[in-house]
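Title: [Solved] Uronyl 2-sulfotransferase 3D structure

Original question kept below for reference.
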Amino acid sequence: YVIYNRVPKCASETIRFVFREQANARDFSILNSRIYAPFDYNDTMQQKIISNIFKLAQPALYERHMYFIDFTAFQKPQPVYINVIRDPLQRAISDYYFTRATYDCVKKYPELCLKAIQGVSNVVPFFCGQHPDCQRIDDWSLKRAKQNINQFYTVIGITEDLYKFFYVLEKLLPLYFKNVCLLYMKEGSERAENQLYSKYKKKPSNDTIAILRRYLTHEYDLYDYVKSRFYTQYRQLVDLDKWG
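Solution (posted by the thread starter after getting help):
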C-alpha cells in the first residue's frame, strides 16, 4: 500500500489528478477520503483508518488530509508513505486565503493568525504524527517529524519542482508510477502552474512577510530539511540512470 497523507495547499489537486489518471493506466485502486478535517485522530479512529486501508485490494493508494499514523503501533505492517510540501510562507498565505476572507491580522496577533482556527494548518504535525504534543510546533515535534521522515517516507517532494517529484516516484515505485513523468508533462503541468501561482486578493506587505517568517521558524527548518533530502535523492537517481 501507498499512503499520501497530503498537506493542504501543496498542489494536491494536481497531484490527485495525476494519481487518478495513473491508477487507470496502471490498474491499481485508489481511495480518496472526502473528509477534509480533522487531521488528528484517537486510537479508535486510527484503527478504523488502518482497517479501511487493508480492505483495499492491492496495489492500492490511499489519499487523505491526516497526520502521520504509525501502523506498527497497532501491530500492522507499515505502508509506503509519500507526500509533498511547499515553501511555508507561500503555503500559509494560500491556506489563509483559501479558508477566510481577506484581512491582515498578522501585525497585531501573528501567533494567532498561523493557527488552524484561522484556517492555516501547520506542516510539522503531518509528519510528527498523532501524539498530542506534535501540535505544539517546537523542537520536540520537529525532531520527531524528521525521525518519521527518515524512517517511513519513501519520498517527500516540493511543489516548486513537481516534475522531479514524479521522476523519483517513477524510479522508486514503478509498479504504481511507471511513465508518470510523461503523464504529468502531458496533462498535469499546466494545472500545477495555474494552481500554484494563482493571484491572491491581497499581497502581504514586506512587514507582514517578515513577521510571518519569524513565526515559521520550525516550518522552514522542516521544509529546508525535506528539500535537501529530496534533491539528494533526485541527484542519486539521475546518476544511476546516467551510469547504468
